[in-house]
């Protein structure tokens, strides 16, 4: 009896569960009831999108998950029998597709999982992706590997009008090295541009991603494909023209690099001014043909032409106006140079170089698709959709 009391006290010290074992384990009492044995778990499988789902977005990944078991096989195929790429996680419980889906297609999936009971379960099903009323193409400028001037904007243009501008803008990303402050602005319902707050720093590296595939622009219209570009900002060159001075000055990194006598638009007629404002070199054309029946000339050929607006202004040679170059403003809005000077400037110019004009009676109209620097920064920011 002394020995049994000692064992009982020890059991209390060790905890209640041990007390029960000690008291019933000597064979004197009735047999203890054994705890129920749980059956091994049976696996289950779910999928997202669920079977029979309609209008599935093409950019959302397909996910197949196993509960109380592991996936042993997953296959997702399109209506043509092509298999969708995907990856299984380390735990082998979730499979995720790794490529976008196609518009207006039916996808079928089959998945198998094994539970703790060693038995296999299977899930099969299908779903349909969204079918656009129309897909809209977008283009991106500057193009890959371009080297452009410090005033060059990034421009995304759409084939048709975009209703949901915010959705489109959210898909746009600009990365720069070094970091540059800038913003997107919608110049029309078919064009959104990004420009820096100030001119680009020279030699900036720029990467642009327009992840527009699958983006709903409104009215059942969706983005056709993603577009990207990678380009570089070149040296800093800026042209400055104060029209009453009859001189075009070229600056490099803030210091005057060259100076050329010029004849600008007629001072007396605002319709013929070389207008005030900051524009950029848009094209470089070794020769161009000028026509303006209103002012009595057609098929006039000029050399070393740099377009600076879609309003009709160029910087170009005009030897026929030699007597007025450097003395009087007599052009119809263009900047006239001697041929040798026009060639020298043409060779130095780069698409995207800023051209700053002051001193005229009229301002550049903001109707061109390249009007980015005609807007002050606060106005520019107000044109964002976000």
Helix content range: 10-25%
Q: Judging from the principal axes of the Cα atoms, what is the shape?
A: elongated
Counted by DSSP, the helix tally is: 5
- Gyration radius (Cα, Å) is 36 Å
Percentage of β-strand residues: 35-45%
- Residue runs with pLDDT of under 50 for 5 or more positions: 1-27
The CATH class of the largest domain: Mainly Beta
State the end-to-end CA separation. Answer: 86 Å
CATH topology of the largest domain: L,D-transpeptidase catalytic domain-like
Number of strands: 27
User: What is the strand arrangement across the widest sheet?
Assistant: 21-20-19-27-22
Biggest sheet statistics: 5 strands, mixed
pLDDT averaged residue by residue: 91
CATH superfamily of the largest domain: L,D-transpeptidase catalytic domain-like
Task: State the domain count.
Answer: 3
Structural class: mainly beta
CATH architecture of the largest domain: Beta Barrel
Keywords: Acyltransferase, Cell shape, Cell wall biogenesis/degradation, Lipoprotein, Peptidoglycan synthesis, Transferase
GO molecular function, one term: acyltransferase activity
Organism: Amycolatopsis marina
Region (Disordered): 26-56
